[in-house]
Amino acid sequence: MKKKVLFSCLLFLISAGAMAQFTISGKIYNQETGNPLPGAHVSVNGTYLHTVSEPNGSYSFSGIKPGTLSIRVTYLGFETLVKQVDVDQDMKLTLMLKAISFMSEEVIITAIRAGEKSPTTYSTIGKEEIRSQNTGKDLPYFLTGIPSTVLSSDAGAGVGYTGIRIRGTDLSGINVTLNGVPVNDGESQNVYFVDLPDLASSISDIQVQRGVGTSTNGAASFGASINITTETFHSEPYAEISSAAGSFNTFKNSVGFGTGLINSRWTMDGRISSIMSDGYIDRASSTLYSGYFSTGYYGKRDVFKAVVMLGQEETDQAWDGVPKDSLVKNRTYNPSGEIYAQNGGFVGYYNNQIDHYNQNYFQLHYAHEFNEHVNLVSAAFLTTGKGYYESYKNNRSFSEYGLSDTIIGSDTIHNTNLIQQKWLDNKYYGANLSLNALLGRFNLNAGAGWSNYDGDHFGKVIWAQVARMGEYDRNWYFNTGSKTEINVFTKATYDLNERITLYGDLQFRSIQYYMSGLHDDFRDLTQSHHFSFFNPKAGVVYVFNGNQSLYFSVAVANREPGRSVYRDSDANQKVLPERLTDFEVGVRVGGKNIKIETNLYYMDYKDQLVLTGQINNVGEAIKTNVTKSYRAGIELVAGVKFLKMMEWNLHGAYSQNKILDFISYTDDWYAWPEQVIDSMGTTNSSFSPSVVAGSNLSVLPVKDLKISLISNYVGRQYIDNTQTKSRSLDPYFVNNLLINYSVMPKWVKQLDFMVSLNNIFSEEYSSNAWVYTYYAGGDHPEEMNGYFPQAKFNFMAGLTLHF
After folding, report:
1. Whole-angstrom Cα distance, residue 509 to residue 524?
2. Nearest-angstrom CA–CA distance, 81 and 98
3. Is residue 209 part of a domain?
4. For residues 739 and 757, what is the distance between their CA atoms, to the nearest angstrom?
5. Is 256 domain-assigned?
6. How far apart are the first and last CA of the chain?
7. What is the DSSP letter of 89?
8. Which of 795, 764, 630 is nearest to 167 (CA)?
């Protein structure tokens, strides 16, 4: 039924385009040389109409009604052209673009981004949309409008540790780049945006590709990729002061500045920020600081840019979650840091149960333009990270930490309360190079990258209630990880004619990974692994006209197992890399006041690593390969503008996410280490809701005032892979109200007001959870669990002054 409705909508839109009264067409040229400009972006302001010029510079819009229109043209290395036209008949309009006197820095991310003629499923979020909702929340919260996206927050209010899943894939399977530089941790492949607080204040735009997408730098794209571009230069000097405050003692403050172009060549930008919040959950506070600094040289054919991003986070630990039986009467309960007496009585909480981490990014970018069609881009980077999390541990045995029993008189003490710290000290460095060429009907991007990751993992006992003097003040374990990666790719589009564009993409990844040393349970982790992956991609785009197109693609991605998989696996367990083959087919339709993008996907996994309940020889849960699993679904993005002051953007996704021939393992405490094994056939994948939908209804009642009702629905999510309803998250529907208002008083350039009213109907829901099942003598399994409830009604209000 849903597919029939969607198909009917598509037929309506296409027929509506056919009844259009007028057509605007023409060619775009370089004003200085007279050469045509292929690949220029042409749009009609205030509408959804958008197209890209052909190899001969031609463009066309149909479905144009009479009236005055504002046409906007952008092209890399040229000034943006905005032209007013009065339409009362079919028009031939020649547009001349003037080359800018310096090279554009946008070329830095050209090689890894999807373009208008890329047969992949993607969305782009612009700077204004990001700024309009920036109240200090972690970066994933700016991606709520992306189909198939589910967010979570450990502290319950979006500040601190957060998570995002796209098509059921968490950040360890999502490739993240920052100005084309890889961000994913070399070993865990995860990304923690809490380490870069208020990054949103320094972002130019974000492109999210769903599925495998196009080849990029860094970790495997195993469900999506997120490509972030930081601030581009400002031609004029500026300064900004921004402050926001709201529920849970949340405060955000930032100061930004820019010199503008100095001597038409040099520029410098900077920002410092602080964010503080108590969090919704008990003892889940965050104290976050960050800085962003960049300087650049913009020559006629050369761009040099240095970027430094500094981040420091200190958060209370809220990652244990809330036990399910506490959700009704004490849903903010946080068990982390509980202290107990020897008789088992509760004493209180340890007041320094924290996570403390510093992460800094250093990037150098250089680009050279050989001519208006060919350029070379390079980057060198260094990312450093160092920090620890500190925990109070009750009644731990000395032997767990390699300590000697303590003798007091005639008594031998075997256990003690203690405080431990687990540290990570790492460096991630490398270089990328890409060549971009637009040669007639060919658009070629070729790239290569090399990177190396070195990480030290160690733990300390910093205090023990009972211990031999000086014995505990040392590392109780130490191990290292080292990972080297080489990445080479070539991708090209070829315009077969004005309607058909072919796409090809070949990538090779070579990975060397070494581990050595002792884990915290004194297991020797020494091992090495080598992988060579070939990831081909191909597709085709068919353009009906400038506003309507159809695409199809097939893409392959291979992913190496992460550190924890190798760390926790037994020596005799064979762990295989994962393989994903992604099929995408989609339609894009745009009109003056309406747009619709819909796509079907089928993601076929081989040897996907999942939790089955299986344990290693010391009782820790391990991930194991499942032979066959898949994700299949339909996604929709739609928008409509009406009544001259309203805009309604919608997105939705329906999917099936299955593991075939799933085998579950459950611990039996009375027959340890035996497990109860259950062959369950086909089951739903964990954290993969079949329905995700969202809406953003905006109204502009007066000039510069915008009120938006933002709604999101997430269907049932299973916490494990057994498809057991009692171990699932209930569906939820959350509504937020966002109010933006701008004025231009005489004493500042602009004054922006923002009010964000979140969860206005106080929906009680949890967005994430964990569960451990076991048998303890009965016929039915018992559970330990932790849920992550999200805040009920809360608010933030902010003010930004532009100078």
Report:
1. 28
2. 8
3. no
4. 8
5. no
6. 54
7. S
8. 630
Query: 396-407: per-residue pLDDT in tens?
Result: 999 999 988 888
Predicted TM-score of the model (pTM):
0.91
| Residues in the chain, pLDDT under 50 | 1-20
**Single residue among 75, 100, 125 that ends a domain in this structure:** 100
Q: How many domains does the chain have?
A: 2
- Looking at residue 37, which CATH number applies to its domain? 2.60.40.1120
Structural domain contains residue 798: yes
Q: What's at 556, amino acid-wise? A: V
pLDDT in tens, 356-369: 999 999 999 999 99
Q: Which of 136, 141, 314 is nearest to 242 (CA)?
A: 136
Rounded CA gap, 534 and 72, in Å?
40
Q: Nearest 5 degrees, angle CA 9-CA 18-CA 645?
A: 65
> Measured between alpha carbons, how far is 769 from 788 in angstroms, rounded to an integer?
6
Max Cα distance, the chain (Å): 104
Tokens, residue 408: 């007091």
Residues 119 and 210: beta-carbon distance below 8 Å: no
What per-residue confidence (pLDDT) applies to 469? 67
DSSP assignments along 433-502, one per residue: EEEEEEETTEEEEEEEEEEEEEEEEEEEEEEESS--TTTSSSEEEEEEEEEEEEEEEEEEEEESSSSEEE
Nearest to 791 by CA among 755, 763, 768: 763
Please report, as a single letter, which amino acid is at residue 156: G
* CATH number, domain with residue 339: 2.40.170.20
Model pLDDT for residues 677-695, shown as the tens digit of each residue: 999 999 999 999 999 999 9
Supply 239's token pair: 């300064």
Name the token pair of 356: 């403390």
CA dihedral over 342, 347, 351, 353, signed as positive or negative: positive
Cross-strand bridge partners of residue 425: 386, 456
Secondary structure class of 8 (helix, strand, coil)? helix
How many residues in the chain? 803
Residue 6's pLDDT is 44
Q: Using CA atoms, how far apart are residues 388 and 424, in angstroms rounded to an integer?
A: 6
| Contact status, residue 318 vs residue 161, Cβ threshold 8 Å | yes
CA nearest neighbour of 322 among 789, 702, 757, 794: 789
Best CA proximity match to 29, nearest among 50, 54, 51: 54
Q: 56: burial class by Cβ within 10 Å (0-12, 13-18, 19+)?
A: middle
| Residue 703 lies in domain | 284-368+375-802
Reported for 771-779, long-range contacts at CB under 8 A and 24+ positions apart, including other chains, are: 771/719, 771/720, 771/727, 772/621, 773/613, 773/666, 773/667, 773/720, 773/727, 774/666, 774/667, 774/668, 774/669, 775/666, 775/667, 775/668, 775/669, 775/670, 775/676, 776/669, 776/670, 777/669, 777/670
Return the structure tokens found at 606: 């081989």
Residue 22: both structure tokens together: 């007028």
Domain's final residue, options 72, 100, 128: 100
